[in-house]
Amino acid sequence: MPPFWWILAAWMALGCLGRLMAQELTVREIPELTVTSNPGWTERVEWMPSELSVPYWSIPLDPPDSVTNTLRWLDRSRQRSIGFYRTVVTAWDPTTLLRSIPTHEPQGNLRPAGFVWIPPGYFTMGSPTDELGRGTNEVRRSVLLTRGYWMSDHEVTQAEYRGLMGRNPSGFPGDDRPVENVSWSEAVAYCQALNQRASGREELPPGYAYRLPTEAEWEYAARAGSGTAYPWGESEAEIGRHAWHAGTAEFSTREVRRLSPNRWGLHDLLGNVWEWCLDWGAMPTETTSLEPTGPGNGSLRIIRGGSYLDDPRLLRTASRMAFRPDWSGDCLGFRPVLAATNPPGSGRLGLRMVPELTLRGRPGTRFRIERTRSPQVTNSWESANQLDLGTNSLIVWTDLSETPPGWSYRAVQIVENGGGGGTGGDDGGGPLRPGEPTHGRPAGFVWISGGTFRMGSPDTELGRRFNEVTRTVTLTRGYWMSDHEVTEAEFESQLGRASTPAHGPRFPVQSTWTDAVRYCQALTDKARAGGTLLEGFVYRLPTEAEWENACRAGTTTRYSWGDDPDGLDIGKHAWSWVATHHEVRQLLPNPLGLYDMSGNLWEWCADSYRDTFPDTAVDPLATGSVTRRSIRGGGYYEFFSRSRSAARGGAQTPEWRDLGFRPVLAHPL
Fold first, then answer.
1. Are 308 and 272 in contact (CB under 8 A)?
2. Cβ contact 165:182 at 8 Å
3. Distances (CA, A) of 72 to 63, 88, 502
């Protein structure tokens, strides 16, 4: 056979093999958590950015296996740049738990000087409705603290604060007086400095850290086993022996440890200065709590204990107030605790990384997933699973086998009855959709039918913002939309220059609104010059209504894949709350075949930004400002709720960072 035919035969064989292989198979490792639980416990898993912060997210766990008392949970949320996981018990039997937990002080001479051990316990927080001087925010609830902690027996003094932080902000000078004029943030910084100093001296017990007390820890320590208005009883008569208040302090702070402590040896928990707590301020809603830490966010931080300026009724054990965390005053101080860094359930959490495969191919094809630890050895590949794409062009599978990591994977198309196939590409093929013109579809674009849909979000939608007013909108004409955000390679090919900054050819380009418009005009000019532009159509940015119609893809839920209140599925569909943006078409598309409509980069729209939608309900387009334009879809760096279908924002047209776009081929505006 002549050499030419050998070459042709080899080329045909390679082409056939290429049709049998998946064109795009990506593998990443995701965390699999194994939680050892107790029968009857209800738990959640949390992602913590640091030991002293509130959780980024908190997700309820399914009940554990009744035989092994274990459960598995896969984290596809991609929240793992900096931080750690923890599990938290949310429902419990207090009698059983208190019998099983140690109450004694840890051995080994770990107690810091000037601190008192506070044992774990169960107590009633808040005040009864008939308590004299009671505030409406003193809701009664049963609280269980399962781990003890050390608490400073006095408020931080000016000498202690100056010795560690190098300054003294107080308005009433005196080394042994409590430091005041300290904001919540400055109190937290002091605790962090304590940790650094103790760690450097090897004086920090393993698994413990200095921090502000939670509100529950503060009140539990202040009560010292009592259930009355004051630690010594219901009467104000003895307050002068225990607390500096408006009737005894003579309008200034007083030296610490000068009055009698409570039964656990803690001085000045009532009076002298209000004390910052860790919690955000809120009205308690639950009737029982395990290790409560308050809400996950807010605008005010809790203060407890009353001050030298206050009437004795504000010095009751249950009295509570809240101030802005950046506020300071000469009646505000604090005292630290040395406490365990993990909540109940810690030490029962196992973690391993497992491979997650994302396979992209032509709908209707089936693939065999094969794996090997020796990819260079031809006969070493073994079958791991079979995947059927069905009506989708992308499918995700996680290898949960018990074997150690280190596999290489490949996907081989299963050919039945001698059929062909292969993965789809950007060929503009596929059946026509209702209303789609019979010709003119650009490669990589999807036809979006017009019609009537609900724009915005209902008042009850989780994460809703004020600018998502619900209204019924009608689009009288369909349009084609790019199935992906414009990439850096596409941008450079049309405008002849690279984007700023460059990350890679398949990454979505970061662009100003003006450059996005120029790109669309360049597409129009090129198609018109080549004779491929359908008459009456141009490339342009979508209107907000066109964008949301395409994003929703006929749905009315928070996201195109459902309400997903806990963010369990967002990692399959959207780059949200991650460290950086990613290449396009890596996650599952929405039901219309559009990728990255949620997350990755915000996307420019044609509209001027307004807090409310245009008055017209037919083909709406907001006009007005030429320097501030609408953006949709959310960014990789923002929390899940900003990737909802209804989420919207505005940006100045010269801005480009974390802003991208996708064009539509549609009738001119």
1. yes
2. no
3. 10, 15, 39
Tokens, residue 243: 């607390």
Task: Over range 68-74, report the average pLDDT.
Answer: 71
CA 602 vs CA 391, 461, 527, 549, 628: distances in Å: 28, 21, 27, 16, 14
Over residues 204-247, the pLDDT tens digits come to: 888 899 999 999 999 999 999 999 999 999 999 899 999 999 99
Spatial CA neighbour of 513 closest among 479, 542, 481, 549: 542
Q: Which fold has domain 445-666?
A: paralog of FGE (formylglycine-generating enzyme) (3.90.1580)
Domain 103-340 sits in CATH at: 3.90.1580.10
* Domain ranges across the chain: 29-91, 103-340, 445-666
Name the pLDDT band for 519 (thresholds 50, 70, 90).
Answer: very high
Domains 103-340 and 445-666 share a fold: yes
pLDDT of residue 68: 57
- Both tokens of 611, joined, read 């807090």
- Are the beta carbons of 310 and 252 closer than 8 angstroms? no
Task: Give the CA distances from residue 586 to residues 35, 405, 506, 573, in Å, rounded to whole numbers and listed in that order.
Answer: 30, 22, 10, 9
For residues 509 and 571, give the distance between their C-alpha atoms in angstroms, rounded to a whole number.
21
CA-to-CA dists, residue 138 to 215, 282, 313, 318, 319, angstroms:
12, 11, 13, 6, 7
CB atoms within 10 A of CB 597: 30
Single pTM value for the model = 0.48
Across 70-74, 193-197, 418-422, least confident range: 418-422
Cis, peptide link before residue 501, omega less than 30° from 0: yes
Alpha-carbon gap, residue 584 to 596, rounded angstroms = 7
220 φ, ψ (degrees, to nearest 5): -60, -45
Band (504; pLDDT cuts 50, 70, 90): confident
List the beta bridge partners of residue 48: 84
pLDDT at 18: 38
